Amino acid sequence: MDPFLSLLHSFSSGLTESELGSLKFLCRDKIPKRKLEGVRSGMDLFGLLLEQRAIAEDSVDLLETLLRAVKRLDLVEQLQQFVEEGEANAPNQPDLNEKRLQKAAFDIIYENVGRDWKRLMRRLGLPEVRIENIEAAYSNRLSEQVFKSLREWQKWKGKNAKVADLIKGLRDCCLNLVADKVEQKLLQMNIEKQ
Q1: Domain end residue (candidates: 27, 60, 89)
Q2: In this predicted model, what pLDDT tens digit does every residue of 45-58 receive, in sequence order?
Q3: How far apart are CA 38 and CA 124, in angstroms?
Q4: DSSP per-residue string spanning 28-49
Q5: Those residues with Cβ within 8 angstroms of residue 157's Cβ, 6 or more apart along the chain or in another chain
Q6: Which residue, 14, 33, 143, 169, is the most exposed by fewest CB within 10 angstroms?
Q7: 78 and 104 share a domain?
Q8: What's the angle, vertex CA 164, arms to CA 166 and CA 120, rounded to 5?
Q9: Which of 89, 111, 134 corresponds to the end of one domain?
């Protein structure tokens, strides 16, 4: 059984009529009106969103936005947990030590890169269309743009995502102070590990 479909099924069974009505309203720009009129359950709605490719197992941003809009933070948390566990179990992911180092590097980059995030992502080779999608999806939230771009780069590179590449990208962008902070943090982590 597909775990993402199971998750959507559990979300559907927990939605009230009022929440379903709100979700339908919010999806008017994604699903034709005629099809929306036939939606009687969350499963119907999620099925149409899947059909329109508005949501997918590896593309849950719209679903998260919808659930936040109807104030179902419990479901948002379940969705985030699903995404985290899915990435941890994916075969093309970095080893656990590299992920630990990436998390430390991401925290520093998140706090320090700011508006230079696009330049950094271009240096790291992230396709322009992905950069544009992140910018459009989080147009007024710079911190989310930085966070999502790092996660997108990590997913895109898979097991080839290396902290050394992040440091080189930072230096190529003349963000040497940030690169130094990352290197210091990694050195500190290695000392603590011994």
Answers
A1: 89
A2: 999 999 988 998 88
A3: 45
A4: TTTS-HHHHHT--SHHHHHHHH
A5: 124, 165
A6: 33
A7: no
A8: 15
A9: 89
Please tell me the pTM assigned to this model. Answer: 0.56
Count: domains in the chain: 2
Same domain, residue pair 69 and 151: no
**Residue indicated by tokens 């690169």:** 179
Q: Are residues 101 and 65 in the same domain?
A: no
What is the tens place of the pLDDT at every residue in 1-20? 688 898 999 999 889 999 99
- Tell me which residue range forms the domain holding 104: 96-193
Angle at 100 between CA 67 and CA 102, to 5 degrees: 75
Q: Which amino acid is at 53?
A: R
